[in-house]
User: Which sequence fits this backbone?
């Protein structure tokens, strides 16, 4: 008893203790009997379905987290690889939103250049122009024979594959801009960008994709000890590695003891379109998507684009999933009269209009 208040002492909780509240002794015997008479509730058996779905849920969460981490890694790797591809200074002012490839049609000159030692210069073996529309998600790619004779006011008449080397010899720093201006006048469209890939870059992309499945239309045999070319392909459907795919699109003539049939520029252009079509198909598969960083890494030293890094990203995100059937390949044909190809005027005009349509259609 607290003499000051006349109340019994309290516990720390502030409540009066049960033992002090009642002067009657506890009946421990009755309490024990009560505990004995209480029935123990049986534990419920765990549902196997509940366990199953719980396990699946955990796996899904882990899978999603892993996928996010993997996706982030892929984006990081791809982003680093683009630094080597873009020739535009990172300090250059970003493009305004209205010029982004996400909303504005773009045109690009695509050149395949032989930069190997003993190749004899920087002539372009592959000469293509592409226009792409982000609204219609379509593209047109026009392939021009490398031996096409060009007669254009203000320019010396020569084969189309010789102009880039000529511009480089005049002014290396201005060569890309001079080339875009020339092609723009030739096709009567503005050329926004130029993309240049050498032979090794092309072969590396094909290898990174695991090869390309194509129908080799004829036996091909050619040897050049000077630059190491050794073309030896048999007719038929097959999977070609990078080197063989390059030989497939480049083959022109045979020089062996038992020569194989020669190939025209028009046939070469059709093969180039076939291989590009197959590369697009493989890149859009799940396996191809996961190989994007490897592809970018493999071509980093062999592909150059005068496109800002962010614009390259916009091009990839806008057109990477484009249905391959929405890409129209137009190999322009003409007449061969050594040493030039003379384009068919009507077909050349049709190709020019097709390129223009992509840039204006909304």
Assistant:
């Amino acid at each position: 008893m607290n003499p000051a208040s006349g109340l019994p002492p309290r516990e720390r909780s502030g409540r009066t203790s049960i033992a002090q509240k009642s002067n009657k002794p506890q009946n421990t015997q009755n309490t024990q009997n009560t505990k004995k008479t209480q029935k123990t509730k049986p534990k419920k058996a765990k549902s196997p379905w509940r366990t199953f779905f719980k396990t699946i849920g955990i796996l899904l969460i882990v899978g999603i987290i892993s996928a996010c981490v993997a996706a982030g890694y892929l984006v990081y790797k791809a982003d680093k690889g683009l630094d080597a591809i873009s020739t535009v200074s990172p300090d250059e002012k970003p493009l305004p939103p209205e010029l982004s490839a996400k909303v504005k049609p773009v045109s690009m000159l695509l050149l395949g250049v032989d930069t190997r030692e003993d190749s004899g210069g920087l002539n372009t073996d592959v000469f293509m122009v592409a226009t792409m529309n982000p609204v219609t998600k379509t593209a047109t790619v026009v392939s021009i024979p490398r031996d096409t004779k060009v007669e254009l006011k203000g320019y010396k008449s020569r084969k189309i594959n010789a102009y880039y080397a000529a511009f480089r010899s005049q002014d290396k720093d201005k060569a890309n801009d001079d080339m875009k201006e020339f092609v723009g006048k030739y096709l009567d469209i503005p050329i926004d960008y130029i993309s240049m890939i050498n032979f090794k870059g092309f072969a590396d992309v094909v290898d990174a994709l695991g090869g390309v499945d194509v129908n080799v239309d004829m036996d091909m045999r050619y040897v050049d000890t000077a630059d190491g070319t050794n073309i030896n392909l048999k007719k038929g459907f097959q999977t070609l590695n990078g080197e063989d795919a390059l030989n497939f699109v480049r083959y022109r003539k045979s020089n062996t003891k038992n020569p194989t049939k020669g190939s025209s520029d028009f046939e070469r252009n059709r093969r180039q379109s076939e291989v590009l079509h197959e590369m697009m198909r493989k890149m859009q598969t799940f396996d191809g998507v996961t190989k994007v960083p490897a592809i970018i890494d493999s071509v980093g030293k062999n592909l150059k684009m005068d496109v800002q890094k962010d614009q390259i990203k916009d091009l990839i995100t806008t057109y990477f999933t484009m249905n391959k059937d929405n890409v129209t390949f137009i190999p322009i044909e003409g007449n061969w009269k050594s040493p030039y190809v003379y384009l068919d005027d009507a077909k050349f005009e049709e190709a020019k209009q097709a390129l223009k349509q992509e840039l204006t259609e909304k």
In short: DSSP finds twelve helices and 14 strands in the chain. The chain has one domain: 86-360. The domain at 86-360 is CATH 3.40.630.190 (Aminopeptidase).
